[in-house]
Design a protein that fits this description.
Radius of gyration: 24 Å
Number of domains: 3
Protein backbone atom coordinates (compact mmCIF):
# COMPACT_ATOMS: atom_id res chain seq x y z
CA UNK A 1 0.00 0.00 0.00
CA UNK A 2 1.41 3.38 -0.99
CA UNK A 3 1.24 5.82 1.91
CA UNK A 4 -0.02 9.36 1.66
CA UNK A 5 2.36 12.26 2.14
CA UNK A 6 1.62 13.53 5.66
CA UNK A 7 2.43 16.70 7.57
CA UNK A 8 1.98 17.60 11.27
CA UNK A 9 -0.45 20.44 10.43
CA UNK A 10 -2.57 18.09 8.34
CA UNK A 11 -2.53 15.40 11.02
CA UNK A 12 -3.67 17.89 13.67
CA UNK A 13 -6.43 19.21 11.42
CA UNK A 14 -7.61 15.71 10.57
CA UNK A 15 -7.66 14.72 14.23
CA UNK A 16 -9.82 17.77 14.95
CA UNK A 17 -12.35 16.79 12.28
CA UNK A 18 -11.39 19.20 9.49
CA UNK A 19 -13.27 19.26 6.21
CA UNK A 20 -11.50 17.34 3.44
CA UNK A 21 -12.19 18.63 -0.05
CA UNK A 22 -10.71 16.76 -3.01
CA UNK A 23 -10.19 18.99 -6.05
CA UNK A 24 -10.94 16.86 -9.10
CA UNK A 25 -10.62 17.50 -12.81
CA UNK A 26 -11.36 14.12 -14.38
CA UNK A 27 -7.65 13.46 -14.90
CA UNK A 28 -5.70 10.44 -13.69
CA UNK A 29 -3.95 12.21 -10.80
CA UNK A 30 -7.09 13.58 -9.19
CA UNK A 31 -8.67 10.14 -9.61
CA UNK A 32 -5.69 8.62 -7.80
CA UNK A 33 -5.83 11.31 -5.12
CA UNK A 34 -9.41 10.48 -4.21
CA UNK A 35 -9.00 6.70 -4.43
CA UNK A 36 -5.87 6.76 -2.24
CA UNK A 37 -7.20 9.18 0.36
CA UNK A 38 -10.52 7.40 0.68
CA UNK A 39 -8.70 4.10 1.14
CA UNK A 40 -6.80 5.52 4.12
CA UNK A 41 -9.14 8.19 5.51
CA UNK A 42 -12.56 6.60 5.15
CA UNK A 43 -13.02 6.67 8.95
CA UNK A 44 -12.26 10.39 9.15
CA UNK A 45 -14.86 12.04 11.42
CA UNK A 46 -15.11 15.30 9.49
CA UNK A 47 -16.97 16.11 6.26
CA UNK A 48 -15.45 14.91 2.97
CA UNK A 49 -16.42 16.04 -0.51
CA UNK A 50 -15.21 16.28 -4.10
CA UNK A 51 -15.16 19.65 -5.87
CA UNK A 52 -14.76 20.33 -9.58
CA UNK A 53 -14.31 23.71 -11.28
CA UNK A 54 -15.87 23.50 -14.73
CA UNK A 55 -13.87 25.62 -17.21
CA UNK A 56 -16.69 25.74 -19.74
CA UNK A 57 -16.58 24.90 -23.43
CA UNK A 58 -12.86 24.13 -23.44
CA UNK A 59 -13.34 21.16 -21.11
CA UNK A 60 -13.36 17.63 -22.48
CA UNK A 61 -17.04 16.75 -22.63
CA UNK A 62 -16.42 13.62 -20.55
CA UNK A 63 -14.60 15.36 -17.68
CA UNK A 64 -17.65 16.21 -15.59
CA UNK A 65 -19.11 12.73 -15.97
CA UNK A 66 -15.72 11.27 -14.99
CA UNK A 67 -15.84 13.33 -11.78
CA UNK A 68 -19.39 12.16 -11.16
CA UNK A 69 -18.36 8.51 -11.61
CA UNK A 70 -15.52 9.04 -9.15
CA UNK A 71 -17.86 10.59 -6.57
CA UNK A 72 -20.23 7.64 -6.97
CA UNK A 73 -17.33 5.22 -6.63
CA UNK A 74 -16.31 6.56 -3.22
CA UNK A 75 -19.81 7.49 -2.07
CA UNK A 76 -19.23 11.22 -1.65
CA UNK A 77 -20.95 14.34 -2.91
CA UNK A 78 -19.55 16.29 -5.85
CA UNK A 79 -19.65 20.09 -5.78
CA UNK A 80 -19.42 21.76 -9.22
CA UNK A 81 -18.42 25.42 -9.46
CA UNK A 82 -18.06 27.75 -12.43
CA UNK A 83 -16.83 31.27 -13.15
CA UNK A 84 -19.95 33.42 -13.46
CA UNK A 85 -18.40 35.62 -16.18
CA UNK A 86 -17.74 32.62 -18.44
CA UNK A 87 -15.25 29.83 -18.90
CA UNK A 88 -11.63 29.72 -20.01
CA UNK A 89 -12.27 30.70 -23.62
CA UNK A 90 -14.35 33.68 -22.54
CA UNK A 91 -11.61 34.70 -20.09
CA UNK A 92 -8.99 34.69 -22.88
CA UNK A 93 -11.29 36.69 -25.14
CA UNK A 94 -12.04 39.18 -22.37
CA UNK A 95 -8.35 39.50 -21.60
CA UNK A 96 -7.60 40.38 -25.23
CA UNK A 97 -10.38 42.96 -25.33
CA UNK A 98 -9.02 44.49 -22.14
CA UNK A 99 -5.49 44.50 -23.57
CA UNK A 100 -6.63 46.39 -26.67
CA UNK A 101 -8.56 48.91 -24.59
CA UNK A 102 -5.63 49.49 -22.24
CA UNK A 103 -3.14 49.84 -25.10
CA UNK A 104 -5.39 52.25 -26.96
CA UNK A 105 -5.59 54.45 -23.85
CA UNK A 106 -1.85 54.16 -23.09
CA UNK A 107 -2.56 52.35 -19.83
CA UNK A 108 0.21 49.95 -20.84
CA UNK A 109 3.22 50.51 -23.06
CA UNK A 110 3.13 47.04 -24.65
CA UNK A 111 0.29 44.86 -25.85
CA UNK A 112 -0.56 42.05 -23.44
CA UNK A 113 -1.17 38.58 -24.84
CA UNK A 114 -4.60 36.98 -24.31
CA UNK A 115 -3.32 33.57 -23.24
CA UNK A 116 -2.27 32.30 -19.87
CA UNK A 117 1.35 31.10 -19.75
CA UNK A 118 3.40 28.66 -17.63
CA UNK A 119 4.63 31.66 -15.62
CA UNK A 120 1.21 33.32 -15.44
CA UNK A 121 -1.37 30.61 -14.94
CA UNK A 122 -4.43 32.69 -14.17
CA UNK A 123 -6.35 29.79 -15.69
CA UNK A 124 -5.58 27.94 -12.44
CA UNK A 125 -5.61 30.83 -9.98
CA UNK A 126 -8.77 32.56 -11.25
CA UNK A 127 -10.87 29.75 -12.69
CA UNK A 128 -9.98 27.02 -10.22
CA UNK A 129 -8.31 27.96 -6.92
CA UNK A 130 -10.18 31.20 -6.19
CA UNK A 131 -13.60 29.85 -7.15
CA UNK A 132 -13.11 26.56 -5.31
CA UNK A 133 -11.88 28.21 -2.12
CA UNK A 134 -14.70 30.76 -2.14
CA UNK A 135 -17.29 27.98 -2.40
CA UNK A 136 -15.68 25.91 0.35
CA UNK A 137 -15.61 28.89 2.71
CA UNK A 138 -19.28 29.52 1.95
CA UNK A 139 -20.30 25.91 2.54
CA UNK A 140 -18.26 25.16 5.65
CA UNK A 141 -18.37 28.15 8.03
CA UNK A 142 -16.53 27.84 11.32
CA UNK A 143 -14.36 24.95 10.13
CA UNK A 144 -10.81 24.15 9.14
CA UNK A 145 -10.77 23.11 5.49
CA UNK A 146 -8.16 20.91 3.81
CA UNK A 147 -8.14 21.26 0.03
CA UNK A 148 -6.35 18.19 -1.33
CA UNK A 149 -4.79 18.33 -4.82
CA UNK A 150 -3.44 15.58 -7.07
CA UNK A 151 -0.14 17.34 -7.83
CA UNK A 152 2.89 15.06 -8.24
CA UNK A 153 6.61 15.88 -8.12
CA UNK A 154 7.57 14.06 -11.30
CA UNK A 155 5.21 16.14 -13.44
CA UNK A 156 7.52 19.17 -13.63
CA UNK A 157 10.46 20.91 -11.98
CA UNK A 158 8.16 23.48 -10.37
CA UNK A 159 5.87 20.82 -8.96
CA UNK A 160 8.84 18.86 -7.66
CA UNK A 161 9.58 21.64 -5.17
CA UNK A 162 5.96 22.26 -4.18
CA UNK A 163 5.26 22.07 -0.45
CA UNK A 164 3.33 19.04 0.79
CA UNK A 165 1.30 21.32 3.03
CA UNK A 166 0.85 25.07 3.21
CA UNK A 167 -1.69 27.45 4.62
CA UNK A 168 -4.17 28.63 2.01
CA UNK A 169 -5.10 32.30 2.61
CA UNK A 170 -8.13 31.99 0.33
CA UNK A 171 -9.63 29.49 2.80
CA UNK A 172 -9.24 31.94 5.65
CA UNK A 173 -12.26 34.14 6.36
CA UNK A 174 -12.76 36.26 9.44
CA UNK A 175 -16.45 36.65 8.59
CA UNK A 176 -17.07 32.95 8.06
CA UNK A 177 -14.53 31.95 10.74
CA UNK A 178 -12.70 29.49 8.50
CA UNK A 179 -9.06 28.58 7.97
CA UNK A 180 -7.44 26.02 5.76
CA UNK A 181 -4.58 24.27 4.06
CA UNK A 182 -3.57 23.03 0.64
CA UNK A 183 -2.38 19.42 0.87
CA UNK A 184 -0.59 17.28 -1.74
CA UNK A 185 -1.13 13.69 -0.53
CA UNK A 186 0.32 11.91 -3.63
CA UNK A 187 3.14 14.36 -4.34
CA UNK A 188 5.74 11.56 -4.11
CA UNK A 189 3.87 9.06 -6.30
CA UNK A 190 5.12 7.79 -9.65
CA UNK A 191 2.97 7.48 -12.74
CA UNK A 192 3.04 3.69 -12.32
CA UNK A 193 1.52 4.06 -8.86
CA UNK A 194 -1.21 6.30 -10.28
CA UNK A 195 -2.21 3.69 -12.86
CA UNK A 196 -1.87 0.90 -10.31
CA UNK A 197 -4.49 2.36 -7.98
CA UNK A 198 -6.91 2.73 -10.91
CA UNK A 199 -6.47 -0.97 -11.60
CA UNK A 200 -6.64 -1.94 -7.93
CA UNK A 201 -9.87 0.03 -7.47
CA UNK A 202 -11.22 -1.22 -10.82
CA UNK A 203 -11.90 2.37 -11.81
CA UNK A 204 -11.61 3.22 -15.49
CA UNK A 205 -9.67 6.40 -16.30
CA UNK A 206 -10.88 9.24 -18.52
CA UNK A 207 -11.54 8.27 -22.14
CA UNK A 208 -9.00 10.87 -23.23
CA UNK A 209 -6.33 8.41 -22.09
CA UNK A 210 -7.94 5.17 -23.17
CA UNK A 211 -9.48 6.20 -26.52
CA UNK A 212 -7.39 9.16 -27.64
CA UNK A 213 -3.94 8.44 -26.19
CA UNK A 214 -3.58 11.70 -24.26
CA UNK A 215 -0.69 11.92 -21.80
CA UNK A 216 -2.61 14.31 -19.54
CA UNK A 217 -6.14 15.65 -19.29
CA UNK A 218 -6.89 19.30 -18.63
CA UNK A 219 -8.41 21.68 -21.17
CA UNK A 220 -9.02 20.22 -24.61
CA UNK A 221 -6.33 22.68 -25.75
CA UNK A 222 -4.01 23.58 -22.89
CA UNK A 223 -1.20 26.15 -22.87
CA UNK A 224 0.91 23.49 -21.09
CA UNK A 225 0.13 20.63 -23.51
CA UNK A 226 2.71 18.87 -25.64
CA UNK A 227 2.42 19.17 -29.40
CA UNK A 228 1.43 15.49 -29.54
CA UNK A 229 -1.43 16.03 -27.08
CA UNK A 230 -2.63 19.08 -29.01
CA UNK A 231 -2.65 17.01 -32.21
CA UNK A 232 -4.54 14.17 -30.54
CA UNK A 233 -7.11 16.55 -29.10
CA UNK A 234 -7.65 18.13 -32.51
CA UNK A 235 -8.77 14.74 -33.88
CA UNK A 236 -11.81 14.79 -31.56
CA UNK A 237 -14.80 16.06 -33.52
CA UNK A 238 -16.27 17.95 -30.56
CA UNK A 239 -13.03 19.94 -30.18
CA UNK A 240 -12.68 21.15 -33.74
CA UNK A 241 -14.97 24.17 -33.46
CA UNK A 242 -13.07 25.24 -30.35
CA UNK A 243 -9.81 24.77 -32.23
CA UNK A 244 -10.93 27.16 -34.99
CA UNK A 245 -12.15 29.69 -32.41
CA UNK A 246 -8.80 29.73 -30.63
CA UNK A 247 -6.91 30.07 -33.90
CA UNK A 248 -9.11 33.07 -34.71
CA UNK A 249 -7.89 34.65 -31.45
CA UNK A 250 -4.29 33.92 -32.45
CA UNK A 251 -4.96 35.69 -35.75
CA UNK A 252 -6.67 38.70 -34.19
CA UNK A 253 -4.10 39.17 -31.44
CA UNK A 254 -0.90 38.13 -33.31
CA UNK A 255 0.10 36.13 -30.22
CA UNK A 256 0.78 32.40 -30.63
CA UNK A 257 -1.04 30.07 -28.24
CA UNK A 258 2.16 28.67 -26.72
CA UNK A 259 4.83 31.32 -27.00
CA UNK A 260 6.56 30.38 -30.24
CA UNK A 261 4.13 27.57 -31.14
CA UNK A 262 1.04 28.53 -33.10
CA UNK A 263 -2.02 26.41 -32.42
CA UNK A 264 -2.97 26.93 -36.05
CA UNK A 265 0.04 24.83 -37.06
CA UNK A 266 -1.17 21.82 -35.06
CA UNK A 267 -3.99 20.84 -37.44
CA UNK A 268 -4.05 23.28 -40.36
CA UNK A 269 -6.27 20.91 -42.34
CA UNK A 270 -9.10 21.80 -39.94
CA UNK A 271 -8.92 25.48 -40.89
CA UNK A 272 -10.76 27.17 -43.71
CA UNK A 273 -8.57 28.47 -46.53
CA UNK A 274 -9.17 32.07 -45.41
CA UNK A 275 -8.07 31.14 -41.88
CA UNK A 276 -4.85 29.59 -43.17
CA UNK A 277 -4.12 32.72 -45.18
CA UNK A 278 -4.92 34.94 -42.20
CA UNK A 279 -2.67 32.83 -39.95
CA UNK A 280 0.25 33.27 -42.35
CA UNK A 281 -0.38 37.01 -42.30
CA UNK A 282 -0.62 36.97 -38.48
CA UNK A 283 2.90 35.54 -38.22
CA UNK A 284 4.25 38.45 -40.28
CA UNK A 285 2.17 40.94 -38.27
CA UNK A 286 3.52 39.41 -35.05
CA UNK A 287 7.08 39.97 -36.22
CA UNK A 288 6.29 43.62 -36.99
CA UNK A 289 4.77 44.07 -33.55
CA UNK A 290 7.73 42.42 -31.85
CA UNK A 291 10.29 44.48 -33.78
CA UNK A 292 8.48 47.68 -32.91
CA UNK A 293 8.09 46.91 -29.21
CA UNK A 294 11.74 45.79 -28.97
CA UNK A 295 12.67 49.45 -29.42
CA UNK A 296 11.19 50.38 -26.02
CA UNK A 297 13.94 50.56 -23.35
CA UNK A 298 13.33 48.95 -19.98
CA UNK A 299 13.04 52.23 -18.08
CA UNK A 300 10.06 53.30 -20.21
CA UNK A 301 8.11 50.10 -19.55
CA UNK A 302 5.42 50.29 -16.90
CA UNK A 303 6.00 48.71 -13.49
CA UNK A 304 4.19 45.68 -12.13
CA UNK A 305 1.37 47.85 -10.77
CA UNK A 306 0.74 49.36 -14.23
CA UNK A 307 2.35 52.77 -13.74
CA UNK A 308 5.14 54.48 -15.71
CA UNK A 309 8.47 54.56 -13.91
CA UNK A 310 9.81 57.79 -15.42
CA UNK A 311 8.76 60.69 -17.62
CA UNK A 312 10.05 60.16 -21.19
CA UNK A 313 12.14 62.80 -22.89
CA UNK A 314 10.71 64.45 -26.01
CA UNK A 315 12.93 62.21 -28.15
CA UNK A 316 11.72 59.12 -26.29
CA UNK A 317 8.11 60.25 -26.64
CA UNK A 318 8.59 60.58 -30.40
CA UNK A 319 9.99 57.04 -30.48
CA UNK A 320 7.02 55.75 -28.45
CA UNK A 321 4.66 57.43 -30.90
CA UNK A 322 6.33 55.63 -33.81
CA UNK A 323 6.20 52.31 -31.96
CA UNK A 324 2.54 52.69 -31.02
CA UNK A 325 1.52 53.57 -34.56
CA UNK A 326 3.45 50.62 -36.01
CA UNK A 327 1.96 48.20 -33.45
CA UNK A 328 -1.54 49.51 -34.15
CA UNK A 329 -1.06 49.04 -37.91
CA UNK A 330 0.42 45.56 -37.47
CA UNK A 331 -2.33 44.31 -35.16
CA UNK A 332 -5.15 46.27 -36.76
CA UNK A 333 -6.42 48.25 -33.79
CA UNK A 334 -7.34 51.90 -33.25
CA UNK A 335 -5.36 53.84 -30.64
CA UNK A 336 -5.17 57.26 -29.03
CA UNK A 337 -1.91 59.09 -28.18
CA UNK A 338 -0.17 58.82 -31.53
CA UNK A 339 2.07 61.91 -31.24
CA UNK A 340 4.98 62.83 -29.01
CA UNK A 341 3.03 65.74 -27.56
CA UNK A 342 -0.01 63.66 -26.64
CA UNK A 343 2.19 60.93 -25.16
CA UNK A 344 4.05 63.44 -22.95
CA UNK A 345 0.73 64.80 -21.75
CA UNK A 346 -0.55 61.29 -21.04
CA UNK A 347 2.59 60.33 -19.11
CA UNK A 348 2.36 63.57 -17.13
CA UNK A 349 -1.24 62.70 -16.16
CA UNK A 350 -0.29 59.13 -15.24
CA UNK A 351 2.66 60.28 -13.14
CA UNK A 352 0.40 62.72 -11.29
CA UNK A 353 -2.21 60.00 -10.70
CA UNK A 354 0.50 57.71 -9.39
CA UNK A 355 1.71 60.38 -7.02
CA UNK A 356 -1.79 61.05 -5.75
CA UNK A 357 -2.38 57.35 -5.24
CA UNK A 358 0.89 56.97 -3.36
CA UNK A 359 -0.06 59.93 -1.17
CA UNK A 360 -3.46 58.36 -0.38
CA UNK A 361 -1.79 55.08 0.57
CA UNK A 362 0.67 56.92 2.82
CA UNK A 363 -2.15 58.74 4.61
CA UNK A 364 -4.08 55.50 5.05
CA UNK A 365 -1.03 53.78 6.48
CA UNK A 366 -0.43 56.66 8.88
CA UNK A 367 -4.05 56.54 10.06
CA UNK A 368 -3.72 52.81 10.69
CA UNK A 369 -0.80 53.31 13.11
Amino acid sequence: MTQLARHPDIDRALAAGAVISYSVSGGKDSDALVLACERELRGHPGPRTLIHSDLGRIEWQESLSQCERLADKVGLDLIVVRRTAGGMIERWQQRWSSSVRRYAGLETVSLILPWSTPAMRFCTSELKTSIICRELVRRFPGQTIINALGIRAEESASRAVALICKEQPLLSSRTRQTSGYTWLPIHHWSIDQVWAIHEEAQFAPHVAYTQHGMSRVSCSFCIMATEADLQRSATVAQHQGIYQELVDLEIASTFAFQGGRWLGDVAPHLLRSDQRDALDAARERAQRRQRAEARIPAHLRFDGAGWPRVMPTPTEAAMLAEVRCEVARAVGIAIDFQTAESILARYDALMEQRGQRAARVTVQEAMAL
